[in-house]
Amino acid sequence: YNKSTHSPVPLPSHIFHGREHSSATVPLMTPSPTAQTSAAQAQPAQCEEWVQKCPLAEVQRIKNSEGNEIYDTLDPKTRTRLALIICNIEFHYLKRRDGAEKDVENMKKLLKELGYKVEVKCNLTSQDMAETLKQFAARNEHQTSDSTFLVLMSHGVKDGLCGTDSRDESTDILLNDSIFSTFNNKNCKALVRKPKVIIIQACRGKSEGRTFMSDSAGSPSDDTSFTVLSPEEYEDDSVEQVHIESDFIGFYSTTPDTLAWRNCNTGSIFITRLTEYLRKHAWNCPLEEIFRKVQNSFDDFPRQMPTKERTTLKKKFYLFPGH
Question: How confident is the model at residue 49, as a pLDDT?
Answer without folding.
Answer: 82
